[in-house]
Amino acid sequence: MDVLTANIEVRHWLEEVAHERIHGTTQVKPRERLEEERPYLQALPTPWRGEIAAARPQGKKVIPQSVKRPAAVIEQLAQNVPEQHALSVYERLLQQVEQGVAA
Fold it and tell me: How many domains does the chain have?
């Protein structure tokens, strides 16, 4: 299974099953609870990319400003890539859904 297919299946499961069930503790659908809480939620912080000089170990070796990062590194840092699990996690989730365990 590829990442795209796994993400589509997980989104479908979230929309059709997880967000529509009645939560055992709150007795409210998660979708309804989210809409109630949305006005009070804060924005997510921007992702940390490790580019802060103060966050790096400071040794005696100083890298001159004239040293440039390789283009591949610059491109990688510029990408806004969401975090995601290994495909095996999605595969297990889909197997549970098919067996009716996760519903």
Answer: 1
